[in-house]
# Entry
Amino acid sequence: MRKDPRRRDSAAYPFAATLEMRYGDMDVWRHLNNVAAARFYEEGRIRFMDDLRKREPDYAKQRFRLMVAHTAIDYLAEGHYPHPITVGVGIAGIGNSSYRVGEALFQQGRCIGLADVVLAHVGEDGPAPLPAVVRETLARYLLAPLPEERAG
Amino acid sequence: MRKDPRRRDSAAYPFAATLEMRYGDMDVWRHLNNVAAARFYEEGRIRFMDDLRKREPDYAKQRFRLMVAHTAIDYLAEGHYPHPITVGVGIAGIGNSSYRVGEALFQQGRCIGLADVVLAHVGEDGPAPLPAVVRETLARYLLAPLPEERAG
Amino acid sequence: MRKDPRRRDSAAYPFAATLEMRYGDMDVWRHLNNVAAARFYEEGRIRFMDDLRKREPDYAKQRFRLMVAHTAIDYLAEGHYPHPITVGVGIAGIGNSSYRVGEALFQQGRCIGLADVVLAHVGEDGPAPLPAVVRETLARYLLAPLPEERAG
Amino acid sequence: MRKDPRRRDSAAYPFAATLEMRYGDMDVWRHLNNVAAARFYEEGRIRFMDDLRKREPDYAKQRFRLMVAHTAIDYLAEGHYPHPITVGVGIAGIGNSSYRVGEALFQQGRCIGLADVVLAHVGEDGPAPLPAVVRETLARYLLAPLPEERAG
# Structure
């Protein structure tokens, strides 16, 4: 993630939520604790999903369970209290039975971290293929590509 | 991580700490929340480091700051309250100015998750090479290799 | 607290901060966890104090340490995700070497909880009298009295 | 609470659980955060209740919901990482439709805090009287009285 400059650009994320940092998010080093940062990615992801269900009635009708299968976080800079944190969220990849959410945290105008979260689509008997309507909906919320890629 | 069966074996980890799961670690799904799981990896890593400083006086004399640069977590199974969780910790790789900690969570005899944490060694002017004594000490706490590898 | 209807009126609190509720603030019952509610009172109190230091330069010059000696919380109604929570904060009482902060949580237009927090003023040798400037400053941020009391 | 020396004596509590303190329980002051302390009281209370259901089959058959109506905490001393914390729990009072749990935190042999938690018994239409079997069971787990009181 950290090698891709697009990921540090807030314009790349189709969804964003701004959240208060809390005193309790700091650890003994007086900056945003690493685990507390994970809480911001969780919150951004859940708000993005809630927003998706409101905007996309066909998607909202689907009944399935998603499980977090993998998370990866790049810590780029320290977060500082009490400045609010904006979480940018979008779809980073769509697989057969899972998809990848790409996220970034912004504080005071700079990107302080990046995350990728793999969500697995689980049916009665374990991993199950993503329904077509889910795939089509998610494809409308992809992280914005670079101008060069758009041209390509 | 998840593709390497050694990582799911508690015997591979040179350090382990057993911690109580708390009611507050559950989320609305009644299982160990993903972010709460990250708290267990944090705790395991810090206890491993404290243990290292007690066992290794030359390492303990070193003055440097470590920053979490990257974390990756594989979620393998749900964690359940109120069973205690054992965190296994060891060194997964030693680089020039950073090293990688490998961790696993075990509950009720099975591995429920794996984590890799990259810690960057930071001096006055940013990333700095790991001192020889640090490299040598860490090398004594590597994740145990497979028997075949030992033979190789 | 709960018997005093003034305490449930947001207009009684000279300071207020609105904070996002987080998914992680819920417990297995899908409502605001009791301990998570305590986090909101902590955040409100700290933001009130920070605001005080900005508004009151003479108070801000004072050097002293405050310790939380006692907290009491009344839980009046369940809090629900994802509605923001407003914390009202004011001074509920000024003692010799401590003072009492009164707080309330409001969500969706109703009061869901009340808290009293006793902060002890600690000097080098334990509890120490509040300096005159601290007492005078705090007296300007008292919870608003009832109309009858104002008349009295 | 803090004026009653019995409450600081671990022998007074019929139930106790020892829990690891976590690095993340510290705040910027490097001691046990006030809200994190509330997490220990919550955990102690829930483990006490689980233990009660195992020991008391007649109590365990009862179906009712308990809601936390009020908590009060006295902070007596700072808690320090990484020493384990023992939570003592017992019944401090039994009312008509609620009861009071008394708790204490002990670390390194001293009492660092006390809590009282009022749990309200809630039926279909709001507060409901505690069934006789609940009252009788709880009465067997009262905080131990002083020897003088026993004699009285």
About this structure: The first strand of chain C starts at residue 15 and ends at 19.
